[in-house]
Fold each of these.
Amino acid sequence: MTESGKPILYSYFRSSCSWRVRIALALKSIDYETIPVNLIKDGGQQFSEEFQALNPMKQVPALKIDGITICQSLAIIEYLEETRPTPRLLPRDPKKRASVRMISNLIAGGIQPLQNLSVLKEVGQEKQLAWAQKTISSGFNALEQILQSTAGKYCVGDEVSMADLCLVPQVANAERFKVDLTLYPTISHINKSLLALEAFQVSHPSRQPDTPPELRA
Amino acid sequence: MTESGKPILYSYFRSSCSWRVRIALALKSIDYETIPVNLIKDGGQQFSEEFQALNPMKQVPALKIDGITICQSLAIIEYLEETRPTPRLLPRDPKKRASVRMISNLIAGGIQPLQNLSVLKEVGQEKQLAWAQKTISSGFNALEQILQSTAGKYCVGDEVSMADLCLVPQVANAERFKVDLTLYPTISHINKSLLALEAFQVSHPSRQPDTPPELRA
């Protein structure tokens, strides 16, 4: 935390995992400071000794809050939910909470890690677009089907949940990798509804302190 | 659930994600039935129409319980924790819970997905051993460092938690891929302590209904 007691978010404007946490902070009206970690510049600032001491996984986001540092976006969001429960990002009903966590983990464990920067580097420039498209499409095929039984206005029912915080940044990644989203009408529809909400707008990659001028909204 | 009301676990003996859930079920003394899903045989039974209807992600584990089907191992474990809280797999203190979830997600999102069967197929036979070793080593380097500040007898303090349910199966994968575990003394030590517990033994890949005779303990 800063001397003023504000939490500090280590974030990169285009990181989908950072965006998830930014949405949670916005929804819960938690005032925070951003320290940008540029994943490209200087060979990747996440590899600096200073940052590695903070997060040995060399990934954003990391959140300094209440005297501790938490890494892994879902762990951060669950902590915020337990310590700042209003508005809730997990439903009261355990079965609905299970749906929220299932969708969140499907995206955070089943899609995003396979199309993140470090994996695409390994895959090589030639194959990386096809690789990312295949990964995202395969996950979205499953998600579109699951949403048929869980979704209302949003991923699970009519309240914004942690699952929605995962969905919107993943759809943005899908757009960057030119995935045909017309194949996923439910995902697209929910994404559109969520992007109309203020918390999803202020946290958007196009409006961060480290967003390059040419990408600013 | 079966007619007798028992939960049904769709599992593959060697799947590290299935093992996580088997440990949770054993620790919480939840009686269940196993339906094996062979990820290799018949081109992969997870691709059958029947199984896809159950889990569109075409992955094990899936758990039928209380009239619902839950996929994604961490979502299943969190549901079991909320509905069958004894013994607890998450500490009471929110900061310690954050550590448990951080380590669980580091493994479940940051290591395992990058060395699972479907990714290794994409990577190709020649490169897959090096790929898996690099992924696991990179994750274990981070984890070894994190454990310096969280571990007691187990990953977080002296009580078995969800983090431990993720650790042991991941170490087994590391052994299969011949990762040099002497580089990770804390991980190795905790793993050894956990493997001495009955819940980790009865759930072990060498003791499942679908374990091939030549691999049985």
Amino acid sequence: MTARLDFNQADFEPQFAALLDSKRESDQDVADIVASILARVRNEGDAALLDLTAQFDHFQQDNVAALAISKAEMQSALDELDPTLRAALVTACDRIRAFHEKQVPDGFGGLDDDGVALAMRYTPVDAAGLYVPGGKAAYPSSVLMNAIPAAVAGVERRVMVVPAPDGYVNPLVLAAAALADVTEVWRIGGAQAVAALAYGTQSIAPVDKIVGPGNAFVATAKRQVFGTVGIDSIAGPSEILVIADAQNDPEWIAADLLSQAEHDEAAQSIMITDDADFADAVDAAVAAMLPRLDRVAVASQSWADNGAIITVPDMAKMPELANRIAAEHLELALDDPEKWAGDIRHAGAIFLGRYTPEAIGDYVAGPNHVLPTARTAKFSSGLGVVDFMKRTTLVGCDAASFAKIAPAGVKLANAEGLGAHALSMTIRMTKPV
Amino acid sequence: MTARLDFNQADFEPQFAALLDSKRESDQDVADIVASILARVRNEGDAALLDLTAQFDHFQQDNVAALAISKAEMQSALDELDPTLRAALVTACDRIRAFHEKQVPDGFGGLDDDGVALAMRYTPVDAAGLYVPGGKAAYPSSVLMNAIPAAVAGVERRVMVVPAPDGYVNPLVLAAAALADVTEVWRIGGAQAVAALAYGTQSIAPVDKIVGPGNAFVATAKRQVFGTVGIDSIAGPSEILVIADAQNDPEWIAADLLSQAEHDEAAQSIMITDDADFADAVDAAVAAMLPRLDRVAVASQSWADNGAIITVPDMAKMPELANRIAAEHLELALDDPEKWAGDIRHAGAIFLGRYTPEAIGDYVAGPNHVLPTARTAKFSSGLGVVDFMKRTTLVGCDAASFAKIAPAGVKLANAEGLGAHALSMTIRMTKPV
């Protein structure tokens, strides 16, 4: 049984606040272990990487070059794929690339009224590292979602790392890497792979930004190297908020709730509806559907522990609750979804209407599936092209425009007690060339 | 004497690498103290805030409401300002606002060839906290640079915190807050102010993003609350890289180098020139100018410990070095600066030509002066309007467009072993309304 909350009940507010505050991540403290791994790779380079890979992945090689996967190997993984699966991957790749190409930002520039040249421009980072988890949880869709934005941004080196437990790498992951045009692949994982990307070794050149999901060791390593390199946000367990009126088929909505619940016991699926009978029907549909799932144990526990059905007296109460939830994924399964979307200020991604289940966005819709979790959609965004770029501002004065604006600058520099700042301006006014 | 490096010398590369790697920040370990302050404010709220403010700022009040500064007080600080100083502040404010208004991002949206509605939109965070250091180091220009982007982004609550040692707040800071349209001001500082902004107290509502410079306690507190709220980057000591040919007045360039050196003993000023005689002339000009500065002790130590003059055989060698330095501030004091700027991939802000000293950008040019330090311009950007906004993607399918793209999604979901993902799509194909 999942939690049921009713907006009209007197204790709704404390119950809803508790739902928002529920901590679903394990506080596995691996900081010390990770710090020592990072230090070893930073100090010993290749030798530490080989040693740690043998230790953690049971994959023993004599030199780091042997950990590389060539472009030819990636291409043959793609060539050997079942044709319909390959076609599906191509569809996903093309649609993701098309959506991300629309995100490439324009800079701007020109002279202002005082004759000062002002501009802002975007440039890509030189090199990006893409962490891909190993073994069974290796998702080709995640390779596409992380590698394509980097390629669209114009990042020259796009370096994938993937652990190879006992030497095994999922061929689907390699096929996706080939399609997404990854430029380097190394069979390394864990904190040691993050260290190699951040600091470089004799064989692996360092990168500027590291993205991609991983376990607690990987997430902690990313936190610890932040500052030396940039990182994406640290993703928590997946979440969905489905807004559904009584016009929906309860089974469709049940399947949507379960599509997040099956990810992880810590995942969270919430529905808000304005119809108590529909709430009952969805609850029943979930119960009936659960036993049919391969991942029944995971999905059942997620739904029981973290799921919730919230009834509101009318949909007008919904946006405020949805904004407080600030869901990673928000489905608006009701009439006029665009109108309702206008009332949503905080969500990672919004799925409009009854024919847009969240899973379509995990694979083929085009927008990124790397999205902010745990209420962080209030202040952060899904992965995008700009995450692989940075902005530089440019200012250019000539003698005339400088003379117009510098006096105000001198006044402020002196008010702040910064005499050399003032001097660097006055010297150009009192002693012109 | 500052360091001199010559590109033509055999030991240039290790010397340059050492310059890049030099660690200029003190590793003051305050993490445990900060963690206990954050926990106290989180658990005890207002009472802890009052207690810690009395303890650290020697400013004793009975309730948090008494720590607020009203809009009327801010306005009278502005009204009482010397008129020419007020005019300078207005010039700065207007120019900064104009530049940041150009940054407001457009979203996009429309139907693709398959009939799928796809969009990306930007929304502001609900509330932003702006940390302003107290006492003498309180810079009105920093208030403008942090508060204006938030206002332009459309952030509703723009909350300034500023410590008031013995009850004192610099009136220039309040005047700047009035001009920049800050909506709330609290006389609190240190880690306790960061905690109040992140977690909220009985009297102070929490914010979603915290920006602004501060000491080691503030920086550490920002790191620790990251995840609960967003933060800007943690700024290190200031840096300037001046590229100057022999056509410059050595005194102008000396003043520019010193304008960063005067900030902090840990600040770093570097010049690259293609003329050894000009290098000598600038070195001599710095030595002659130093005693004339109010902040002679700070600037002298910064220049001696962290400054450097690098000579290159010709300017064509410069861009590679400049890109490795990835300076916070880069001056291009040579002919055709726009051309050279095209070769620069990594810099926080670029100042074009001989009449654009960096200090003009600190106050009145318009671009932000909160910029990435310590080589982080390789992957991060100066503060901007988008730092107070987040992106949401939107997807909408109807039955027809869903039928076109869903089969590829189902194929991939099954390949990843995620049956409920697949089910949420197949159920809409096999059982249409």
